[in-house]
Amino acid sequence: MADASTQTAAIILFVKAPVSGQVKTRLAATLGDDTALDLYQCFVTDMLAMVESLSHPLRIYYHPPDAGPAVQRWLGDRYALFPQQGQTLGDKMQHAFSQTFDDGIEKAVLMGSDFPDLPATIVTEAMAALDTAPAVIGPATDGGYYLIGFTAAGFSPGVFSDIPWSTDAVLASTCKRFQASGIRPYILPPWLDIDTENDLKQFIANCRQTPGLAPHTMQYLKE
Question: Cα separation of 138 and 128, whole Å?
Fold first, then answer.
């Protein structure tokens, strides 16, 4: 549990309900629905372990919005769970930030669940950046981003408007939105987003070079 001194910052994690055929569909195309589901659950387990090594409270936003009972059966009752709300991914992220800041949090970072090898040092760097910058972003190697964060005072909902989601232009479009809003975000190191079998192979190679990352996912792959 976070103590009172850490309640000014929060980590937001976006997850999907663990339903075969509904998660990691591009991985499933070559590995099968059940294997893709198993991997996805390992991804989330590794990301939760990483986040729990930090002192910040965690807010999990799940999709679809009626999946609360299923997500709670999966993850247990240890976490603050919220439904994702909105039509587009941008709508959902904007709502999550707005709700988080309305709850009194002063700075927050939001991540997806496709980065099981992301080290805690990156999240720590992002949080520290928000002490001096209004926003932070972590570029993904596929043209998207793996992390975005704001201070409550620097939050700009327009950053999520008119973005071509699920394309390789997400990051560039978002940076243009930042520029139009007069915001210069802190840029984190790039990181691999695991969407395809080739991504998975690169992830395995990366983890072999740096043992200890994504232990649950790597154990599953070994078995």
Answer: 14
Q: How far is CA 203 from CA 30, 137, 198, in A?
A: 16, 21, 9
Span 116-156, pLDDT tens digits: 999 999 999 999 999 999 999 999 999 999 999 999 999 99
How far, in Å, CA of 160 to CA of 119, rounded? 26
Q: Report the alpha-carbon distance of residue 162 to residue 159 in Å, rounded.
A: 9
pTM over 0.70: yes
Q: What 3-state DSSP class applies to 140?
A: strand
Among 141, 110, 103, smallest CA distance to 126 is for 110
Phi/psi region, residue 76 (left: phi>0; alpha: psi -120 to 50; beta: rest), is left
The tokens of 112 are what?
A: 């997806």
* Length of the chain in terms of residues written: 223
